[in-house]
Amino acid sequence: MLFKEIIGQQAVKDRLIRSIKEGRISHAQLFLGPEGSGSLALALAYAQYISCSNKQAEDSCDQCLSCVKYNKLVHPDLHFVYPVALSKTSRVSSDLANNWREFFLDNHYITLFGWFETLDAENKQAVIGVDESVDILRKLNLTTYESEYKIMIIWQAEKMNPEAANKLLKILEEPPENTLFLLVCENEDQLLRTIISRTQLIKIFKINDIELINALIERHSVSPEVAKNIAHIADGNYSAALTLIDETENAKLNLLTFQKLMRISFKFDAKGVMAWIDEIAAAGRERQKQFLNYALRIMRESLIINYANGSLVKLSTEEENFVKNFSPFIHINNIEGIVEELNKAYYHMERNANVKILFMDLAIKFNRLLNLQKPN
Q: Do the beta carbons of residue 181 and residue 154 sit within 8 Å?
């Protein structure tokens, strides 16, 4: 992975390269950035530059033996940790190493939803379990093979369960010699504060619209007009932009699922609610969580249409057509309650709540909230 392959983030690239040249490589670093910003790609490019035997001024050489192995994710001193769906056959990341290589090499801007969809494990929780911490220690106690450092990249570090997080904390406090930990995280508030305090923070921001537009035009041959529209909706998330380009059935399904929920909740069609619950219960847990996030976005855009400048709205054409008619039902008397209920539903789903009970409760709450009168 080369720095030049990553969209934008020039200030972060410069900082990382400068730290290597000046010999200021912290043993534990936290790459904190939102989905689609390129945080994992940056961590890998950084690791490759550290290990490169013929470093260039602004990037790895891409030709030495180390770079060749990094490009195939087979370097013996590079290790990955990522969430898995715990089962009898997959307890730790190394159990899915081949799946991981194939998935990541296909697209460096990966998402947790995409990873679990690839594994056909959408009904299970994404977790980095306690067995992983034991495996990490085993790998890092090995001597280095070819590079000066053993490098451990932990993607979605916030998915560590409490036992795994506490064991990792002990490793960070007394790291093995010549070992680097690169934690990649999207949700800082889900990571132990004690782990955050023991890492050097690398803050990564959303990709700015101009850089995202240029990338879409150059990499995907879309017209400037289409690229501008996609960048506006994607809001700095390259992964979301790719989804919009492909116009996946998943994006359309989220809109149809949301429309149906709003209609049956407003009138509380009990038969319709039960049928809708059966449909969404058949989807995987990660897809259900994605839907809740989608619902939050549509509620936000609906409120913006009611009270702010319409140019701030980030919707596809189909979404915009629906929201224009739906937005009058979202106002200052109910938006706080709606957002609270969606966030609570997501929280409980993260903790393996019964899906049917959870969505029934949500439909009942929406019936009351959607029927609140808009202020004069």
A: yes
* Interatomic CA distance for residues 311 and 72, integer angstroms: 43
Residues 345 and 214 in one domain: no
Report whether 113 contacts 290 (CB < 8 A): yes
pTM summary value: 0.72
| Mean of per-residue pLDDT scores for the chain | 89
- The answer to whether 183 and 29 are in contact (CB under 8 A) is yes
Tokens of 243: 């989804």
Q: How many CB atoms lie within 10 A of CB 222?
A: 18
> What CA–CA distance (Å, rounded) separates 144 from 76?
8
94 and 81 belong to one structural domain: yes
Edge-first strand order for the sheet with 200-203 is 78-81, 150-155, 179-185, 28-32, 200-203
Distance (Å, rounded) from C-alpha 214 to C-alpha 53?
32
Domain span holding position 226: 208-246
